[in-house]
Amino acid sequence: MRRVLFVLALAALADSGISQESKDRYPEGAKTPKGLTAVEREVIADSPLLAARGLGAPTGEVRAVAEYEPMEGILVAYEGPSSWRAILRNMGRHITTTGNADLFIMCDSTSEATSARADFIASGADASRVFTKVRQTDTIWMRDYGPRYIYENGIRSIVDHTYNRPRPNDNQLPSFWGGDRGEKVYTIPLIHGGGNYHLDALGGAASTLLIANENPGLTSNQIIELWRDYQNVDTTLFDPLPAFVDSTQHIDMWMQIVADDMIVISDWPLEPGSSWDATCDGAADDYAAAGWTVIRTPAIRQGGTHYTFTNVVMCNDLVLIPEYDNISSTYSQQALAAWQAAVPNKTVVQVDCDAIVTASGVMHCIVMHIPENSGGLSPVAWLTEPDDGVFEAGESVILTWRTDDDEGVIAVDLLFQSAPSQSFELIAEDIADIGLFVWNVPDVNTENGTLRVVARDASGREGTDDTDRPITIIGSACIADVNGDGIVSPADFTAWINAFNNQLPECDQNGDGSCTPTDFTAWINNYNNKC
Fold first, then answer.
1. How far apart are the first and last CA of the chain?
2. CB–CB of 462/379 below 8 Å?
3. Coil vs helix vs strand at 524
4. 9-13, 68-72, 225-229 — which is least confidently predicted?
């Protein structure tokens, strides 16, 4: 009987997509820390981490998304012991109500998804905003491995990195998430932990020099350039706190950007003048000198634990900040006052984080932000190819596009305009949003054609995008093409004048067999109609 049960257990693991090796290394309910475990150190010693490479950087106009911008939701992994999951449930209650956002929960199995949803709802989360997804994760530390978003020509896209821990299921999550949502995933060739990064909405960012240690084959400038290429940000690298103070050496453990020109930075009231206090003071001075408003909040070391008050979760009009009973309540009170001063128009909620802070991370470490559709309620469209080009009549051209929407695009129209003076004509109407269509180029002559994609959602709202540069089409012979270069353009007016003056056959634009001033009016009509 015991053998039968063992076989059934293995079958259940196989059905859920959970590998036995992963379950052995990261058993359910384990307090896997943010830092490397002893087993993981052995794994890296045998097989050093290598930065994955994708197909290159984004090609559209990129803007990185700040955490204080409007959010669709927050992504978490339902991992760790019951005390950690209790923190997640407490957070979820506030995120789905006061935070006015969805909560996306990654679960290892269907049964876990069912129980997780019930747990969150029982804890006060808005049932209509709780969504589970079955996909195995190894650890709770979503910030370090989860999907980091950019807007690419207004379309939500993901920039993924190689997780700085040998946790394969965590490392692969962004690819799964992007594929599941139909979002493009770019792979930046960096080994990284996402908690070591903060950015604003204006193209500024901050990290610690830990990133240089994690990528010894790159210079700091090369790392900064990669972030510029993939996220369109200029990153300032700060000294990390000493590992014996903060084992993660991540910047989110001692600062948080809260607005375009406001930042909260740790201060160390019990250790003034220490090197870590100097690092925080120096960063505060740098931001203040750059015109930022700087708010200081206490940070405390006690019993080998770094009690931080900057590792917070901002979600629309909500800010979740940690509260600790293991240290003097004075510091939690001071932190609350500091955050209320930093975000006076938001609701600041304290969450007891004693259970997780000893694992070297708090709330910011266990979430990833999912930004709103940049068009709000309306779809966003991007005609990716072609953006210009010269084509011949009858040629087959592949049109590609991408869309985004808060509720999903249900249909797409494709149109073509031969000249600015002409109306758009349908190429295809109400087609599926699959991102690809083969266009049979019409028989017109133009140097100023325009392609357009129109995306439509179930509510009838639309988003459009046009080619940024002119489309040229070389059609069959056109009577308005007086100079015979295959293109109808203003140069043909000069050619017609020459033909008129010299009574050449090309002057006859109305087909009456003569060359008279009335042919000028006919040429204008032919020119406008590109025929």
1. 85
2. yes
3. helix
4. 9-13
Q: Is the pLDDT of residue 483 over 90?
A: no
Q: What are phi and psi of 58, to 5 degrees?
A: -60, 150
**Residue closest to 67 by CA, chosen among 296, 294, 264:** 264
In this structure, the answer to whether residues 244 and 199 fall within a common structural domain is yes
Q: Which of 380, 383, 386 is nearest to 470 (CA)?
A: 386
Specify the DSSP element, H or E, that contains 375: none
d(CA 416, CA 422): 10
Number of H helices, E strands in the chain: 15, 28
CATH code of the domain containing 318: 3.75.10.10
55 lies in some domain:
no
pLDDT tens digit string along 84-124? 999 999 999 999 999 999 999 999 999 999 999 999 999 99
Q: Which domain holds residue 407?
A: 380-474
| Residues 224, 225, 228, 233, Cα dihedral to 10° | 30
DSSP symbol at 511: S
Listed residues 331, 347, 371: the one ending a domain: 371
**Residue 11: predicted pLDDT:** 35
Q: Does 367 lie in the same domain as 423?
A: no
Question: CB–CB of 144/34 below 8 Å?
Answer: yes
Q: Which residue has the higher pLDDT, 498 or 186?
A: 186
Residue 21 resides in a domain: no
Confidence at residue 5, expressed as pLDDT on a 0 to 100 scale: 32
Query: How many structural domains compose the chain?
Result: 3
Q: Are 475 and 444 in contact (CB under 8 A)?
A: yes
The answer to whether the CB of 489 falls within 8 A of the CB of 476 is no
Looking at the predicted structure, is the pLDDT value of residue 8 above 80?
no
